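Folded chain entry
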Amino acid sequence: MNLKTVLILLGLALATIFALVCVLLTRERSPSPCQRLPPQQEEVEDTQSLVFADLTAQEMSQVVRYLQGHLGVPLVEASRAEPSDNCIALVELQVPAKAEVLRFLDGAGARPPREALAVLYFGKQPEPNVTELVVGPLPRPAYHRDVTVQRYGGRLPYHRRPTLAAEYKQIWGFLKSQVLPLAPAFMQQVLGYDGTNLAVVTAAPRGFQSGDRVSWFVLFQNVSGFFVHPVGLEVLVDHSSLDMSQWAVSRVFYNGQYYRDMAQLESSYVQGRMSVQKVRKVLWDGDFSSMKPRAPRAAQFPLQFEPQGPRYSVRNNRVLFQGWSFAFGVSVSRGLRLFDIRHQGERVAYEVSVQEALSVYGSNCPAGMSTRYMDGSFGLGRYISPLVPGLDCPYLATFVDTHSLSDSLKPQKRKASLCIFEHNLGSPLRRHYSNLQSLYYGGLVNSALVVRSIVTVGNYDYVWDFIFYQNGAMEGKVQATGYPSSSFLHGDGLRYGNRLWEHTLGTIHTHFVNYKVDLDVGGVKNSLVAQDMAFEVTQAPWSPEQQIERPLLTKKVLDTEDQAAFRLHSKVPRYIYFAANSKNKWGHQRGYRIQITSFAGDHMPEGSPMEKAISWARYQLAVTQRKEEEPTSTSIYNQNDPWTPTVSFADFINNETITNQDLVAWITAGFLHIPHSEDIPNTVTVGNSVGFLLRPYNYYDLDPSIYSPDGVFFTSQQDFTACETNPLACLPKTASCLPNFPPFTFDGFRNM
């Protein structure tokens, strides 16, 4: 072997050794999988919160079987029911009386019986009506009681019933089989109708007086995002009769003109006596309304992960996080609701829940100008949406399945329809950098817990959040997105919105949302206190010839419901809070402050015959005595009979005393939406967000977040690069791990 060969082999050996060393060194530096640590607040299993838990699928089925066997009348599957049938419209938890629950939660009373509320439509009776039954005890029902008269003072007229999905299908079938064929030339030559390429949307309420069930239906191109593809045709259907063969068309509207029926419209078209606007037919993807991205993929957007696992826990319907605990649930009509909210072990609120979402539209088309949607009637829980991980919620959020029973005899499971996650807001909750005298930095990252549901009611998507902060504050927030509603652009349409496309008028409308906030601050009995500021003019004590204008604190106890009912445009004291009968270390009444974020204008003129049905929207804030007979600010029956509302919130306010009482705050927030070109393809959440904050006000002796383990403090004299001194310096070690991102799943298209 010559020297050259030896050198070559030696070089190869050295290269191999070098490569192996590099591999070993790289392995040592590669991050390991993140290690999940148990949440800090582990405690013994607590089943008390189950008193608020939504019904399980098994419980719903038991209720249905009980009703089928004990009412003595046939019950038709609601998805197939005709108006003249009997059916179960919905089944959900009957929340026990508060006094009963508190006796149980606070250790002195028995667990209340578990019961369900069932809403039934009795169409096959001499006097058709809507009946509410309480069924119990679960899981093995043995009794039911009719609570309709007790709750509403009388029977519920049948015309007030919320519209079932089956009724909409029947109306669309009526239009397709009996109405649209009466204008064959118009439908084919103007609208290009082939039997499948049109979709329909309903307006509500349905008429002008109690007893009416007459609805405008707007036709759109049946494409993706059809809400912004009107074709100009609207049909008014009288579906008040329980005999569907008696349904009839009351009026037809096309491109600014009204017709007696489709036959008259057809005659006008054939004779050339009508102005026609042919709409360009678009592909199924909707063209301009398509949400398909129009840019190539680029670098991945930022993601959050928990390097040591979630710092909160979810057991059944109970959540624990950084001193907070609460129970959650979903009502079929009202959506997301929370109960028994505690901070540092002390209850601060018994219930915080969504009540209603209202939209009032304007247009020069009949459906648009008459629309006042009360979404609780359609179902803010019924239409809860499956959530997409990584977009609707952080990818690693905890996703919770929910069950509901409405429009069916079988419960429906909605996978991943709630999400719970801790969210680093990327900003300090509090901080200070001292560069005077002493040199130090102190602060706390603003990391909060979020409970979220997203509800898709027709064209709109509402993102409902309840957010819990480490300083004892809680926020309720809603963001609106989805598609704007639209009318066919004609005539003076630009008085009622903006042009969004060739024939599309984005119609002006309002958004109002209402919350129930049952605060229990330091106990059930509270008073309402208002504080603000006024300027007083005084002489400067050290220079009497000079004057000073100094801010002065003003304070007033609001004694009655009338004093505590703040109209939309009235001035609300900037500090308004529920005050306890106890004091903090510094002698102040312990309190929780209500702070509202809203841009609401007028909800509707009070002279309107339907205004009482939405009279909760008169008030940005109203505080009333809590009463079991006033559980909600509105009713699902108000939508279809707003002229004789089943529940009128204005009647809650009758000047009763609210000093040292169990009180409820009813909070309204809202904004005006004038759709504009940037609402195409659809509306963004930015700027379309309103809500409220509940903030401790002298409730503690100091900010409770000072006890957060996330606090940071270091001085100029310390080694702030050391992990022992500064937890932020630990991040290269504690956060340099590989998070476990499970495979993407989405079940939103199953069982549709």
